[in-house]
Amino acid sequence: MEKVVRFGFSNKKLMKFSNEIRTKVFINEQHVTPEIEYEHEEEGHYFLLFTNEKPVATARWRETDNGIKLERFALLKEYRNRGLGTVLLKEVIADIKSFNKTIYLHSQVKAVNYYKRSGFVEVGAHFWEASIEHVKMEYKPGQL
Predict the structure, then answer these.
(1) Which entry of 56, 61, 69, 70 is 20 to 30 Å from 96 by CA?
(2) What is the pLDDT of residue 1?
(3) CATH 3.40.630.30 for the 2-139 domain, yes or no
């Protein structure tokens, strides 16, 4: 049974769960430096996905000059390819759709097709962020 919880930076207990997932995925698996991984923390609106009461995925969004940026989507390795990322993504988008602002993200190139299936389109050239190839993608409403 899945449950998604939205919380703020001040919720230390839930931030601890989120940070543990992000550390495993981004720092340990993908070798992103903590300085890059843990920037803009206080600006974020956070989410945790629980399955059988265990936190297994996290994400956040924050407002920028370009709209609403989706960030830090991380799913523990042993829970991937089960549709859980889509459950989380739908919850995050539902939370921000009413803002009527551009919704975008910087997708790792290996995840582009996933985001395309979820209603995003590529915008611009590929670039490198945290030594990983990315591309900016924007959400086109009505496709998720």
Answers:
(1) 56
(2) 87
(3) yes
